[in-house]
What does this fold into?
Amino acid sequence: MVEIEELKRLFPRAEIAEIPYEERGYHLSIAVEKGDIPDVADTFAKKGCYLFDLFCVDYLDFLELVYFFNNHSAPYRIKVTTKLDPEQPTAPSISRIFTIAHWYEREIHEFFGVFFEGHPNLTYLFLHEGIDFYPLRKKQVKVSEEDKKRLMPKPPGEEEDTFFINLGPQHPSTHGVLRVILKMDGEYILWAEPVLGYLHRMHEKMAENRTYQQFLPNPGRMDYMGALNFNLAHVKAVEKLCGIEVPERAEYVRTITCELNRIGSHLLWLGAFLADLGGLTPFLYVFDDREQVLDILEAVTGSRLTYSYFRFGGLYNDVDGEFIEKTKRFIERLRGRFDMYNRLITGNVIFINRVKGVGIMDEALIRRYGSSGPVIRSTGLPYDIRKKEPYAAYRDIDFEIPTGVNGDNMDRYMIRLKEMEISLNIIEEAINRLPDGPYRAEKLPKKLKPPKGDLLSTVESPRGELGVYIVSDETEIPYRMRWRVPSYSNLMTFPELARGCLIADAIAILGSYDIVVPEIDR
Amino acid sequence: MTDVLKIAVEAIGQDTLRVILGLIGVLILVVINALMLTWAERKVAGHMQRRIAAKEVGPFGLIQPIADSLKLLGKELITPMKVDRVLYFLAPVICFIPVLVSFVVIPFGEGLQVRDINVGILVILAFSSLSVLSIFIAGWGSNNKYSLIGAARSVAQNIAYEVPLLLSLLIVVIMVGSLSLKDIVEAQKGMWFILYQPIAFLIYFIAGVAETNRTPFDLPEAESELVAGFHTEYSGMRFAIFFLAEYTNIMIISAVATTFFLGGYLGPYLPGIVWFLIKTYFLVFVILWFRWTFPRVRFDQLLNFSWKILIPVSFINLIVTGGILKL
It folds into this structure.
């Protein structure tokens, strides 16, 4: 547990302030000199925190680096900020302490031009080679020749007895357009590195160019499998920012639709995971079930994949009796199907041999990477935002969080199956309690002009902990909107888990993350 | 017609003519079999996946394979720039010829055999071993890393599974005392060998599935790992020939299993060839069934299974059978 007094003693120069969590979504704000950053990170690492997010905000007079720390036992979100000179922005790298910072720092370097001292590989991550300005700076800043040279990716050298394989960007089992460079010794993987950016659309920059309402459809395009959860994160953040009250009924419908969305996402994962292992038939079976989810959601939201159903202060339209009826029928149907899935897949000897003991994660690894979702629940950490920082109707509904023991692929598989069952329970409970009343707040401002300030909003997406950080400057347009996506920190554990694996196991591990590439690339 | 035959017999001799006609017949059989198996695979897959599968072209979609092959024939043959041209062209040819020869010695019915060679089973085993050569040539000649890995896997897999396959067939040969397929079928007049040797049959069948690179042993062409394995760089008709060979191999494995363990063409009431085809295609169906219900095994598991389980068990089986026969 983090003690404020202790922090004040450790960092006398830092400005430490407690923040009202209900209003801003985090507990503590610490402003430090940039030289203190490694010490601060080290302190939090020793206290068992993980790096939730790391990003940069351009305030014109200065660049602000924002580090978010949190821990898995009791949520206590700490914002650490430091100011950088916009002319020559440099900062110490903390990638040795938190491995995931390696990737966040690369991202900041190419988007803002911040040079991280001690970072081993500051090359392009999302952007294409040859772009000549830093896209997220508020004033146009040219990329200097020296920076360009540094940003160019360095091709890894081949050695005797080893060879390189490009897994992707066009490959049957990279779930989109992920590319992973593998250094192979025969069938064994010696070294792996994900290459991102094939689906990069710069949603964060788009957000700085349109009003809050106009941005409504965008989050659903990031994670097309959990679109409603992404929408909810955005809507929830803006509601908190503007102080909009949401009616009970809307909160319940949001919960029901989000859980349906989660089931749809997990079902697709099940099919894709088995296809990665070479079993092609389950894919068609899960699509049969997923079709029902899509039909239900289509009738109420109007779309089947990239929903934008939620509005600030409520919903786009109300649900009717038919929706309830169909959902109840679906619950009955899917409950009957789990038995079949267990008989078809879980008991299969080949399947068990392929997933048991493969891709084992432990808590230390998870803390270094800040992974989340079913991936970390497989190690036995009961960390779920729905439970730890409840939102929507999850406050009123009691449900259990399935956890694994070994942290291997088998556990991740079992947890997702169990999670679907629990989602069904949540939906059933929410339907039983569904209150009458308005589905949208009545007195809404025509123009949303949130007060000055910043805010963090978190949601449990099907893949894990999703965070939106918004900086408002009293205009209709967000000053900065940062998306912290779960697949990003999940995927980055791949190089470590894949080292020394057979290529077939690496594919299974990659499949077990349930990554959605457009979400990682944003 | 008979005049033509007489002249032909006088000109080239009865035996040669029999072989030529037989080969033509085998060629037709192979092509029709492969076409029908692509249809059957689609139908089996479809029904196992709760779909209807091909149904538009012809009744029950029966003409679909012909439409497919016309499409494949019409495709441009793309040769990637950096392939080893000789090997790249040679691989599909080498792939296809051995499977043709294997059919020469298989007795489809009583007297329905192109040539009864007294070392019949040796011919089949020798020629079917050649197919691994073609896969390796294809993988090496394609100059693609995925293909190369697929080819290397194929060689390791075939060496590992050739041994239990041979050993389990050897048991039957010891029991009959002849290498001729006809003798082996005739020896099963009283009782099919599957009842004497269920373990040998199982081992043979598992090894056979592995030999034909079918799921769960489809590692050389593992789609989710190696894109398409050894035939990644092949397109159009060249790709189709690999497919043709694969389906014919399935047929051969099933036909040999029928001949050795299921009494070949023997059976009551119906003519021999009908019994033979029923038994063979039942086994073919089982192999298709595997593909749509099992995930893929891992490479090390595959090799361990052969070297640590199948080969010791078949050796013990062989020694025990030999001992019993000697007594």
Observations:
- Chain B is about 70% helix and 0% strand.
- Chain B has a mean pLDDT of 83.
- The radius of gyration of chain B is 20 Å.
- Chain B has one domain: 78-326.
